[in-house]
Amino acid sequence: MPLSTQSQAGDEQYVLVASLDNVRNLSNILKAITFREHAIFNATKNGLKVTVEDSKCLQANAFIQADIFQEFTIKEDSVGFQVNLTVLLDCLTIFGGSTVPGVSTALKMCYNGYGYPLTLFLEEGGVVTVCKINTQEPEEPLDFDFCSTNVTNKVILQSDSLKEAFSELDMTSEILQITMSPSQPYFRLSTFGNSGNAHYDYPKDSDMMELFQCTKTQTNRYKMSLLKPSTKALALSCKVSVRTDSRGFLSLQYLVRNDEGQICFVEYYCCPDEEVEEE
Amino acid sequence: MKFRAKMIDVGCLNHFTRVVNTIAKLTKSCVLRLTADNLYFVLSGKVASGGVSMWCELLQVNFFDEYQLEGVSAEANEICLEVSPENLSRALKTAQNAKSVKVKLTKKHCPCLTLAAELPSLSSISRAVTHDIPVDVIPRRLWHDFKEPSMPDFDVSIYLPPLKTIKNVVDRMKNLSHYLVMEANLNGEMNLKIETDLVSVTTHFKDLGNPPWGDDASQSRDPEEMAYARVDIRKLQQFLIGQQVNPSKAMCNIVHKKILHLILLHEDVSLQYFIPAVA
């Protein structure tokens, strides 16, 4: 492999080395969380977690497990840094991000530790690109304290059904209202826009509904502007889990299958917009 | 002063259209120089055009079935016109399937290049589209600006990799930086580099080969030594966007820290493009 000959001083100096035969397996999933420039990277022996946040109200996490990479070597328990995500994506797609079968860009990503740049070696068709992206000290990601024991309602849907609803959502509505209930209307998306109100109902025995676990009727509102970025993840995903906890916090978990058929996860957490009187 | 020419072959028409489209992507306005044997599209490195100059040479016999030219005088048998290639390109668009296209220098309310296309018709009545493209006739005393540029005394000359690959890389680099360094040596190696506060990116091409110019000066040069030019990345991008067909030969001459001279050779068309270096 041409890339292995590229590293000058050997790999011993690096605290993190990750290689991919097809860079799209990383770039695609990062695109799903690109709505702010800064991304916090955290690597452990399990893999890579990339976090992007907005307004202390929205958090997106992408998980790329270690076994997605052809090589994943980490010398410390946890390695963290922050980089500019748009810059990183431009670097990862430097050869155009071709989708032509048989043409793929190989990646080797190295990090030398605190204060060092993130170094990328990319190779396609014998042409090598070396990128050094400056890193910053990672900020502490928000803890949304969303734990599965506090989950009141949960549904798992085929993404196609939600894609359809999201593509038709009335974007003049400032908020998206989500109702989840053990009785009618089970799972409802509502918008309140200039041209009127709209409700999208999903029956709980629909083919698209893989799992329906609602214990209590709950209606919460979320800012449309905050949920908008999550449609990027939705577009890539095949399944989505929608959960709300007792505080009304929303968790969207997307299951994304890459070019090789392996599975990665993207997760969005969103704060509710305001309390709604429950009936 | 008289000019009239006629094109019948659809292959020639398409080829000519492609050339004009390429020119239209490179510049808003240029000089069309007509001589008995050749057509030239010329852009001289004025400050207004950012110091970029262009020289595109076409043999008239390869395109036109009829070609009559009477220049300003017997000893200066040529005509120089300032024309907007975009207007020419638009006129040619409607002439795509024409049975014949006539190009004529006419005097309407102002001097015009009149392009008359005879379109195929199902009935016996012929369909014709005529475009009058306003031009400025350039007086003879200004012609010295539009002579063929002399080959610069370059330090390194190198064959370019596929233009598509360069274009992909340059497109991404343009998102990251305003300036790009192009460097090459006599060992067939070429690098594209950008460097900003956030990131440094270098793309390495090798085994490109150096054109034999039969030059002694280059033989005494250390084959590893790089010559470079730092240029406005938009100007390079503009050049790459315009290229619709892969040329039979593409090469680049670098005058160290001074100029980037790009040459594309198709069978019967040659295009030279000069980008000045910035400090």
UniProtKB/TrEMBL annotation, chain A:
A GO biological-process term: DNA repair
UniProt cross-references to InterPro entries, sorted A to Z: Cell_cycle_checkpoint_Rad1 (IPR003011), DNA_clamp_sf (IPR046938), Rad1_Rec1_Rad17 (IPR003021)
Subcellular location, principal: nucleus
UniProt superkingdom: Eukaryota
Cross-referenced Pfam families: Rad1
Cellular component terms (Gene Ontology): checkpoint clamp complex
SUPFAM superfamilies: DNA clamp
Compartment(s) of residence: Nucleus
Keywords on record: DNA damage, DNA repair, Nucleus
Subunit structure: Component of the toroidal 9-1-1 (RAD9-RAD1-HUS1) complex, composed of RAD9A, RAD1 and HUS1. The 9-1-1 complex associates with LIG1, POLB, FEN1, RAD17, HDAC1, RPA1 and RPA2. The 9-1-1 complex associates with the RAD17-RFC complex. RAD1 interacts with POLB, FEN1, HUS1, HUS1B, RAD9A and RAD9B. Interacts with DNAJC7. Interacts with RHNO1; interaction is direct.
Biological role: Component of the 9-1-1 cell-cycle checkpoint response complex that plays a major role in DNA repair. The 9-1-1 complex is recruited to DNA lesion upon damage by the RAD17-replication factor C (RFC) clamp loader complex. Acts then as a sliding clamp platform on DNA for several proteins involved in long-patch base excision repair (LP-BER).
Family: Belongs to the rad1 family.
Protein name: Cell cycle checkpoint protein RAD1
Species for this entry: Chanos chanos
From TrEMBL, chain B:
Presence of the UniProt keyword DNA damage in the record: yes
Gene Ontology terms: cellular component: checkpoint clamp complex; cytosol; nucleolus; site of double-strand break
Domain of life per record: Eukaryota
Keyword terms, alphabetized: Cytoplasm, DNA damage, Nucleus
Primary site of residence: cytoplasm
Record localization: Cytoplasm, Cytosol; Nucleus
InterPro entries xref list: DNA_clamp_sf, HUS1, HUS1/Mec3
Gene Ontology biological-process annotations: double-strand break repair via homologous recombination; meiotic DNA integrity checkpoint signaling; mitotic DNA replication checkpoint signaling; mitotic intra-S DNA damage checkpoint signaling; nucleotide-excision repair; response to radiation; telomere maintenance
Subunit annotation: Component of the toroidal 9-1-1 (RAD9-RAD1-HUS1) complex, composed of RAD9A, RAD1 and HUS1. The 9-1-1 complex associates with LIG1, POLB, FEN1, RAD17, HDAC1, RPA1 and RPA2. The 9-1-1 complex associates with the RAD17-RFC complex. HUS1 interacts with POLB, HDAC1, FEN1, PCNA and RAD9B. HUS1 does not interact with RAD17. Interacts with DNAJC7.
Record family assignment: Belongs to the HUS1 family.
Chain's role: Component of the 9-1-1 cell-cycle checkpoint response complex that plays a major role in DNA repair. The 9-1-1 complex is recruited to DNA lesion upon damage by the RAD17-replication factor C (RFC) clamp loader complex. Acts then as a sliding clamp platform on DNA for several proteins involved in long-patch base excision repair (LP-BER).
Protein name: Checkpoint protein
Organism, scientific name: Chanos chanos
Gene coding for it: hus1
